[in-house]
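During data preparation, we tokenized the protein backbone, and the record follows.
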Amino acid sequence: MRIIKGDACVSEGAAWLADHDPRFAKALIEVGPLPLRLKPEGFAELLSAIMGQQVSIASAAAINGRLRAAGLIDEASVAAASEDELRACGLSRQKIKYAHALANSGIDFNALRGKPTSEVIKVLTSVSGIGSWTAEIYAMFSLGHADVFASGDLALQEAARILFELPERPKEKQMRQMALDWSPWQSVAARILWAYYRVAKDREGIS
């Protein structure tokens, strides 16, 4: 299992993908150097990801800022927090349920480091409020897994449609199948497609 630890790993993956498919080589010329995008691991990062679901970036930042200010960034404090305390931080009833579920899940975050991607996703998605996308993003950026792809991500799907000249945006199942061809560097392929999406959006005005 390859772990991305720095820019050199991303560059290695990008070179492999460019050699593997000339369309990735074309995309890399347009997007330039790829970001590393690694994030911290652990409870607070996963809680932050859950808080960011189905809200704007600004709203998610405000909620997470209030949680940090209230000291609600570890399992014990979130588990002990009342609904009123969490609601005061901007959490909806559903997000309160998810926060408590994560705090009481008993996940051993240190043990996740050595687990294969499939096992990480299985453990995380067993918690209410964590779907495949959130689990895959955690594996990709917090654990650095090189061979994982968030197939349900709409930006990745739209970027694939444009770059690979598909007649329509691929659905999650089709996207997952396409991504298998980019193994063992699926997460670098995702970085390329996210970057390409931004370029294409600016160029073509897609939403």
